Amino acid sequence: MSEFRVNVHEPEVGKDGDQGGPSPDPVKSPGIEASAPDLRGLPPAGPPSSADISPSAEASGLLSLPWEMVTQIASHLPAQCVITVLPKVCHALGNVGKDNTAWQLRAHRLIGSRIGFPVGPKENFDWPSACLEMEQLITCWTGQAQVVAIQTKEDEEAREKVRLQERAGLYEEPLAEGQEDGREGDVEGVGVVAQEAANGADEGMDLAMEGEDDDTQPVVGGDQLARLREGLEGRGIDDPDALMEEERDHMMVFGANEGQDGAVHHQANPRNMGNGRQLEMEQRQPLRSPSPTPALECITLPSDHIAPVNSVLLVGGEGAVCATGSRDWNVKLWDLQTSAGGTLLHTLGGRGDFSTHRGWVWCLASQGPLLASGGFDSTVRLWDLQAGGAERGLIKSGAAVHCLSFQTDVLLAGTFDRRISMYDTRAAEPLVKSLRLHGNAVMCLAADDKYIISGSKDCTVVVYDRRAAKGLKKIRLGSYLLSMSYSGSEVWGGDNSGMLHSFSMQAGTLKPLSQFDVGHTALVTGIHRSAGSLYTGSSDRTVKVHIPCAPPRTLCTLRHLAGVNGLSVEAGVLAVAPGDVNVDIWRPRK
Length: 590
Fold this sequence. Notes:
Blueprint: H1 30-33, H2 67-74, H3 79-84, H4 86-89, H5 91-94, H6 100-111, H7 127-167, H8 192-198, H9 222-231, E1 232-233, E2 236-237, H10 240-256, H11 270-274, E3 296-300, E4 309-315, E5 321-326, E6 331-335, E7 343-347, E8 361-367, E9 370-375, E10 379-384, E11 390-396, E12 401-406, E13 411-415, E14 420-423, E15 431-435, E16 442-447, E17 451-456, E18 460-465, E19 470-476, E20 481-487, E21 490-495, E22 500-506, E23 509-516, E24 524-529, E25 534-538, E26 542-547, E27 553-559, E28 566-570, E29 573-577, E30 584-588
Antiparallel strand pairs: 1-2, 3-30, 4-5, 5-6, 6-7, 8-9, 9-10, 10-11, 12-13, 13-14, 14-15, 16-17, 17-18, 18-19, 20-21, 21-22, 22-23, 24-25, 25-26, 26-27, 28-29, 29-30
Helix pairs in contact: 6-7
């Protein structure tokens, strides 16, 4: 067998041409650790336009081949290798990654030539990053979808078996642990199924309970539900103070039973109620994570909150720390790296405070070492992550805070009273400006150093020019956005009917592009879009992972036992608030 040798020869090497020593091991991302996507059959890219890109005429070996053949060979390598390894071999091979035509052909190979990608403007689009993210997404989540489907089927079969056994009367009523003599074992107003849940029986069951209108019951009664529905629509809360007081009463009951096995967590989610859907009270034990593929692992953070988690945020740049905000009025920080299952670092709070906020914590945002939390107590609180979560400021907003956006020079808060407030977190008087651009509660925000984009319950989306200090455009939709993601020249939002909306954003001009039905049947409560990935979460109890093309290509659907309240994505790590006291973390397997 003849030996194939590559002789790379370059007459001149510049400052960046240091080739001493072996190149670092590039295999650090899941896109390379696992099997790379099938890239065979990719058409060759055209020759580069710049004359200095072509290999020298004196070159031999691989570089003596026509440039079209070199790019064709490179198309069979993972994107991570083309981006990080080839530039360290030599200048000529490094220029393979500068050929946008080759990257576009690679993208079409991954998703299909007839699929629209990108959805927004192609000018200045980051093709290398998009291809890298798509390859990693396909490698991780396509195999995971098969595992989740098998696990879901097994769980459904197990639940059905339990239901059949229950109907046949094979379950005996268990005696509550620590029950005193003469004390009735039945929970008043609930049936045997709810009683089993209260006593910790049949831990894997997915339960819906109905009972009388009684504050001490772990059930929302008909009269109480009617009152709640009158004051709630979607995520816009018309009477947050009353709701928080009601939640506080339930929390007191919860705390009294905290030491009992199988404690029942009520799920009075205003997002779900506002959507006109039946309110269900579910007992949710920590999800039994499906057997992961080598690319991904799922962990459930230890249950340290005593009420549903409303918001999650990954911070630290590498998905190393997760912040969680809950209806128990607290914000907690979790270390995701030092232990396999996550470790609680801090419960944030000022000196002498028994909780982080005085009401539900609804949103989180970060910039550098600062973390901001917004709540229904009409405050925004600032915390220093580098100082162990020490308190750095308290801002009174005047109304319940629905959304936050943290930029390098300003903190933006969207509130129930239709305002968008701009704060300078370094100033003694932090309020810079208060804007009223909408006719109803502000539900979501996105921004950069020039523009603010906001969505409201009045079914409008507004663009505000920070430098000119004026609104540029208002777009009216047939529904209202609850979540928004802005990166590059594209803005994506999720509405109260389960639809996704895409917009282009160039030079302050926001232009609607398309609406997509990706299978969500209720409020889209969380969305994250980057050049090559799209994640959506909904109160229909699902999280979906897509490629952000037109229409989006769904790779995987994760199903939960309660409506998803939010999600966060950073460095390939996905954090999900699945509507109860737990948080699920999906991350690349080490």
